[in-house]
Each structure stands twice: as structure tokens, then as C-alpha cells.
Write a structure and sequence with these properties.
It contains 13 helices and 9 strands. The chain is α/β, with parallel strands linked by helices and 294 residues long. Helix 6 links the parallel strand 5 and strand 6. Helix 8 crosses helix 12. The protein is elongated.
């Protein structure tokens, strides 16, 4: 679908948290001419000054409230446990026609936070999750092309203004993303399995190796398989701590299911059951091949 930029153009975008996700959203909209002016807010003045120097933002606000007061759309791109605090800061300063959206990897907790923080203005909030992370973080990693052909999931609630959801959908499409709507609970269950669990496993493996007495020797022999498996352990620890805690019930269920698979593998290895091992490995290989082919 081709989206006409003029139909969704913003005068002023406020980004709270100008890192990989927030910075890339701003950069993509600026590159397409879909926004005239971008204001950045966040905890680190040095990061904001760097975003200004890179042209990702056009001005720095002293706090989220000041940024939101001037904005047509506020994009909250902070670790999910900080979302409620940011929304409380901006609630009284939002224009009645302004839209608020986010980039958090969990949605039920963010929606609950928005309802508590924004009250009646929660109708102006459009929960969103761009599936476009990377192991690098910070504004230096931001790219106008990050969302090209990537999936963005919106989880609007019954209270969300339809026109607000439609505009956020169109803005993500301008960034080059494929956008779809999803129930928030189903979103959290799905991403616990295919995103949150893999990140936790990668962190766990690197941590287990790193805390051994012979860690330096082990890392010196690690090759491409270890590098590929653990790539996402280079992601933001703060962000993934918050995601793990925010989606704890779904993630704990996935950890239980994965632990059962490990127990099954351990049993096969202990019993020398090569046929069962080969069957499990082939099932996994074939499923991965079908997924990649799509």
C-alpha cells in the first residue's frame, strides 16, 4: 500500500527517549518529509545533543512535559517500566487533539499504565510495538531505514480513538513498515515465545560462560555458532530487564516449556538415543527452513 505523505504529515513530533527506536522513527519521518519539526527529550543531555548534531531531532526539551506541550504526536520510546512515569509527566500538557504512542515490547502492562496515568486522555493513546530491534542501542544506532519492510504491531483498546489509531498506522506505513492490529494479551503471549525467551536464553548462556573460572579460555575458542546464538545478548540490559518483568507470566510459561525440551534432550543424550535426537533436530531444522522461506 502506498501512503501519501501529505495525508499524514505532522507539524511537530516529540520523541521521549531518542535512542535506536525513537531516533529511527524520527529519522524515517524526516527523511520522507512527513514531519516538519522534531523535539527530543530524555535522561541524557549528552545523547540529546548528539541527536541534535546528527539531525535526528531539531530541538531539545528540558523534560517530557515541555516536549509534549508543543507536539501533534508524542512517541514514548523508553524502557517499559519507565512508560507510566513519562505518561504522568505529559498528561496535563497534552493538547486535546494530540496523539500519544509508544514502542514498548510488552503491551498489557503499557496499556494499564496509560489508563492510570492518562485517565480520560487514554483515548489519545495508541499502543504500538515496532519489531525492529538491534543489539546496538543509542541514537548513534538510529537509522531512517530501520523500519523498512519490518512489522509494527498496534494493540488499540476499545477506548482508543479510531482516528488516532489510523494516523499512527499511516505514519508507520510512511516509515516503510508493515502494520497490523493485534489483541494485547495475544501479543504478549506470542512475543514471550519468539522474542523475550530468546533474549533471556542468550543472556543466560553468556552469563553462565562469563562467570566460570576459565571464562577467558572458553571465549577465546568461541566461533561463529556462539556469536550468532548470543548476538542479542548485546542488547540493552535495562530494556530487557524491564521486558522480562513486565511480561513475567507469559515468559515464565515459555521458560517452563523450554526447560521441558532441555530435559527431553538431556534424557536422549544420557540414554544414547541418537534416533530421537536426530528426529528432534530434523523437526527443528525443517521448521526453521519453512519460516525462512516465507
Amino acid at each position: 500500500m502506498t501512503v501519501k505523505v501529505a495525508a499524514v504529515a505532522l507539524d511537530t513530533l516529540a520523541v521521549v527517549g531518542v535512542g535506536l527506536i525513537g531516533g529511527s522513527f524520527a529519522a524515517a519521518l524526516k527523511a520522507t518529509g512527513a514531519v516538519r519539526h522534531v523535539i527530543g527529550a530524555g535522561r541524557s543531555r549528552a545523547n540529546l545533543d548528539r541527536a541534535l548534531a546528527l539531525g535526528v531531532i531539531d530541538a531539545v526539551a528540558e523534560d517530557p512535559a515541555a516536549a509534549a506541550a508543543a507536539a501533534d504526536l508524542v512517541f514514548v520510546a523508553v524502557p517499559v517500566q519507565q512508560t507510566e512515569s513519562v505518561l504522568r509527566q505529559i498528561a496535563r500538557h497534552l493538547r486535546p487533539d494530540a496523539i500519544v504512542t509508544d514502542g514498548g515490547s510488552t503491551k498489557q502492562d503499557v496499556i494499564a499504565a496509560a489508563e492510570r496515568a492518562l485517565g480520560a486522555r487514554a483515548a489519545q493513546f495508541v499502543p504500538a510495538h515496532p519489531i525492529a530491534g538491534a543489539e546496538q542501542s543509542g541514537v548513534e544506532a538510529a537509522s531512517a531505514l530501520l523500519y523498512r519492510d519490518r512489522l509494527v504491531v498496534l494493540t488499540p483498546t476499545a477506548a482508543t480513538r479510531p482516528e488516532a489509531a489510523a494516523r499512527v498506522h499511516a505514519l508507520w506505513a510512511v516509515c516503510g513498515a508493515r502494520v497490523l492490529d493485534m489483541d494485547a494479551a495475544r501479543h504478549d503471549a506470542v512475543f514471550a515465545a519468539v522474542s523475550h525467551l530468546p533474549h533471556v536464553l542468550a543472556f543466560a548462556l553468556v552469563h553462565e560462560i562469563a562467570t566460570r573460572p576459565d571464562a577467558s579460555e572458553l571465549f577465546s575458542f568461541a566461533g561463529s555458532g556462539f556469536r550468532d546464538f548470543t548476538r542479542i545478548a548485546g542488547s540493552s540490559p535495562e530494556m530487557w530487564r524491564d521486558i522480562a518483568l513486565a511480561n513475567r507470566q507469559a515468559l515464565l510459561a515459555e521458560l517452563d516449556a523450554y526447560r521441558a525440551q532441555l530435559d527431553r534432550l538431556a534424557h536422549c543424550i544420557a540414554q544414547g538415543d541418537g534416533a530421537q535426537l536426530a528426529s528432534m533436530f530434523e523437526t527443528a531444522r525443517s521448521a526453521r527452513a519453512r519460516w525462512l522461506a516465507k
